[in-house]
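Incident log, support desk, overnight shift.

02:14 A customer reports that sequence design results differ from what the structure should imply. Their input is reproduced verbatim below. On-call engineer (initials T.W.) acknowledged and began investigating.
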């Protein structure tokens, strides 16, 4: 096998030799010119041979079979297994584009865009176009840089490259040392909503799909070792819907429990009530909200104190995930209802301070207890979202906002230095947001949309996975609210029943 492969490689190298190496009389006498000519038109030669063989063997029937069988086989394949069919078709098309569209023009474009480098002999070198792949957004050219070049050289020439390739935009992304990807953007993948009629269950919390990137591919997040997430955006920008679509996948996992506090006080989250370990849509009764927050806080303390002794590890994420030790997602929608004390009377203010203090503790210490706090707000300023909370939230999502200050309040100072900002997001593009990717760079994504009826159907389907937090060691919620002695409740947390 190996010798055969080597032999073929030698033949291929010989055939690909530049013409000037074997020319003139030598070429004429050895018949080399003919071999080269046949090689050059190898596809045509092969096709002609197949047609001739079919005709000579089966006559006209052979030709008809040749015209009918391949398309029929392709259609059947596509019907039976569309993924593998699509994969092969994409590869063939990408290869065709590489050879006949991009490679043919590559050197000229590199020179025109000033991305070539002079070589000692007076010649010049160009970056190598290694391969082409097809993405929903357009073609992606994978390029190996010349020594001394960096992706920044391409970023500077992005406009020139877009004009040279005849596309509205070219995006440049480093893809490894010495490599860069040019994404020839032919359409804005984020322009159209992505509506899901069902959501696959999340099986791996280290790879949770949450939105679609500008290349049309899903983005995932690693929720292990994360304590908190903050999301902000103007009313109607898609915060609740984004959170809903993610929750629909997570609640199908038995090792996930949800706690939802809806500060809007409406029905946005009522779909999850049958599956949520705790659900509260109170925007005025802050005692009820405090009771739930205290309960989660108690669970956190219980886990932090007993986890090592009982399960052998101090960090929740080093232990196997199972339904008896679930990750707890705490969603607080419109969190400013509870944290922004302007206009509150004194008693309510005290409750608000207690809620904020507990949320702040969850954000700071919840990571190693497997508690992930997710705060959504229309008002991402420091009076609505205390900096102690915001700065400890490692995942941030900014849907449409109006001012640079609001964008910075959610995403941090990085947004001032980036071309990508949530201030640009058009009003009609609800569900589009700016997030930081794994490399820390900002990017635009679109959250999928799951309407509340679909969400409710999913929640009902998996309602038997719901557990009370008290089953895992959280203190019970007291009904006779005595004015919220929060110190007492959390202090007793570690002793309550497991
Ligand atoms: N990803 C999306 N794709 C398509 N449409 C969306 C998407 N997200 C939201 N929408 C549309 O926008 C509407 C408002 O979204 P949503 O309720 O999530 O906004 P919000 O930011 O939570 O607003 P508020 O702050 O008022 O609660 C939805 O009812 C839906 O019609
Ligand atoms: Mg909302």
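02:41 Re-run completed on a clean worker. Output:
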């Amino acid at each position: 096998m190996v010798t055969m492969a080597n032999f073929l490689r030698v033949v291929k190298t010989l055939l690909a030799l530049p013409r000037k190496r074997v020319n003139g009389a030598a070429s004429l006498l050895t018949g080399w010119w003919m071999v080269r000519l046949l090689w050059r038109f190898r596809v045509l030669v092969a096709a002609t041979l197949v047609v001739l063989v079919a005709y000579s063997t089966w006559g006209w029937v052979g030709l008809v079979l040749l015209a009918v069988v391949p398309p029929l086989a392709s259609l059947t394949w596509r019907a039976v297994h569309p993924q593998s069919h699509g994969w092969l078709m994409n590869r063939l098309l990408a290869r065709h584009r590489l050879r006949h569209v991009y490679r043919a023009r590559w050197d000229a474009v590199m020179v025109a865009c000033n991305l070539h480098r002079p070589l000692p002999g007076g010649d010049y070198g160009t970056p190598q176009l290694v391969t082409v792949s097809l993405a929903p957004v357009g073609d992606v050219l994978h390029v190996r840089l010349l020594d001394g070049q960096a992706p920044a050289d391409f970023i500077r020439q992005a406009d020139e490259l877009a004009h040279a390739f005849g596309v509205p935009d070219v995006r440049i992304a480093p893809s490894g040392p010495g490599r860069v990807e040019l994404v020839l953007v032919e359409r804005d993948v984020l322009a159209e909503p992505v509506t899901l009629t069902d959501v696959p269950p999340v099986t791996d919390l280290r790879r949770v799909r949450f939105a679609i990137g500008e290349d049309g591919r899903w983005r995932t997040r690693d929720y292990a070792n994360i304590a908190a997430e903050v999301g902000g955006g103007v009313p109607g920008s898609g915060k609740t819907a984004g959170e809903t679509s993610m929750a629909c996948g997570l609640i199908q996992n038995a090792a996930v429990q949800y706690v939802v506090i809806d500060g809007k006080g409406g029905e946005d989250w009522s779909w999850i009530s049958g599956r949520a370990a705790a659900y509260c849509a109170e925007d005025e009764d802050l005692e009820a909200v405090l009771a739930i927050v205290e309960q989660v806080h108690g669970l956190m303390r219980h886990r932090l104190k007993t986890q090592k002794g009982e399960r052998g590890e101090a960090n929740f994420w080093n232990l196997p995930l199972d339904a008896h030790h679930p990750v707890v997602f705490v969603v607080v929608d419109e969190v400013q209802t509870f944290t922004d004390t302007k206009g509150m009377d004194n008693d309510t203010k005290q409750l608000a301070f207690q809620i904020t203090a507990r949320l702040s503790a969850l954000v700071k210490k919840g990571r190693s207890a497997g508690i992930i706090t997710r705060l959504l707000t229309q008002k991402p300023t420091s009076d609505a979202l205390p900096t102690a909370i915001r700065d400890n939230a490692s995942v941030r999502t900014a849907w449409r906002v109006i001012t640079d200050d609001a964008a910075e309040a959610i995403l941090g100072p990085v947004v001032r230095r980036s071309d990508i900002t949530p201030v640009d997001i058009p009003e009609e593009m609800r569900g589009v947001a700016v997030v930081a990717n794994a490399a820390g760079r900002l990017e635009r994504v679109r959250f999928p949309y799951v309407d509340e009826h679909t969400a409710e159907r999913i929640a009902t389907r998996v309602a038997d996975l719901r557990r009370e937090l008290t089953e895992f060691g959280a203190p019970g919620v007291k009904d006779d609210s005595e004015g919220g002695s929060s110190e007492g409740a959390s202090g007793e947390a570690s002793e309550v029943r497991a």
